[in-house]
Design a protein that fits this description.
alpha/beta, Nucleotidyltransferase, domain 5, five-stranded mixed β-sheet, 8 helices, 9 strands, about 40% helix, globular
């Protein structure tokens, strides 16, 4: 049995996942990325090994991805997060043709082929209004933590109008809405709807086609995929539980197994003697 680890060093969180050659997930780990990218990726890698009850020598291959992939010292190879996200999404939902990945600081729309190869993609601009960071900042400004966003959204009744054209302008709108006495839940829902408008615009730029698969930490909040479904007027796939955070690292681990298979083929092709 071969075992690979995929490490997704994101701008906000670093995720690692251990996968065997049957596709079974052996362990996962997630932690804040911080600024010591080499250390956090190594720590996540080691934690994955320990949680699976393995030793370092049991790991056959490690693939890093994400914004900090180059800083991962335990990797055998690195791949782009576009490639890893596509592979992970199509493993979870084989019919996937468009992936929307909303992270802490970035948003990506990816159109993929049947075999999981990237056909086209678009990234958000440098503005944070279309990312998870905008939602977290909005919540913090109103005195709520990230874990309170979900319960808060469940009480929304009349979403506030937040343009979301720019994170700075959007923050001013949040302040204005609070001054008008708008309930925090309605402001939060308005921020969600504003974010999803940007998501759908990005998906249209890659000529998105179903099946649609949504990944990234904010997909934990059911309101987000629900709003994407409404604006697209089409059903979407969302990985269960924590897997929406680990889809990209899963894709990296899968690519690790593909690399091992290719290396084995090359070794078999070398004439003896």
């Amino acid at each position: 049995m071969s075992i690979t680890i995929g490490i997704d060093v994101g701008s906000t969180y670093t995720k690692a996942i251990a996968v065997d050659d049957q596709g079974s997930i052996l362990s996962t780990d997630v932690r804040h990325t911080g600024f010591k990218l080499d250390k956090v990726s190594t720590d996540a890698w080691q934690a994955c090994i320990e949680k699976a009850g393995l030793a370092q020598d049991d790991i056959d291959y490690t693939v890093s991805t994400g914004i900090g992939r180059h800083r991962c010292v335990v990797k055998d190879i690195h791949v782009t997060d576009l490639t890893a996200s596509a592979r992970g999404a199509i493993r979870l939902f084989p019919g996937t043709r468009t992936v929307l990945d909303v992270g802490g600081q970035t948003m990506k729309a990816i159109r993929i082929e049947e075999d999981g190869k990237v056909k086209s993609f678009r990234l958000n601009d440098k503005c944070a209004a279309g990312t998870g960071a905008f939602l977290e900042k909005t919540a913090r400004y109103m005195g709520y933590g990230t874990k309170e966003i979900g319960p808060l959204l469940s009480t929304a009744k009349d979403p506030a109008e937040i343009s979301g054209v720019c994170a700075v302008f959007a923050e001013s709108e949040v302040i204005n809405q609070l001054s008008l006495g708008t309930p925090p839940a309605d402001i939060m829902q308005g921020a969600i709807e504003s974010l999803v408008v940007r998501c759908v615009q990005l998906m249209k730029r890659v000529k998105a086609e179903p099946e649609f698969t949504l990944i990234g930490g904010i997909m934990h909040f059911s309101t987000v995929p629900g709003e994407v479904t409404r604006q697209l007027d089409h059903e979407v796939n969302v990985p269960e539980g924590e897997m929406c955070m680990f889809t990209t690292s899963l894709g990296a681990a899968i690519l690790g197994h593909r690399r091992l298979a290719k290396l084995a083929e090359e070794e078999m092709a070398v004439p003896a003697g």
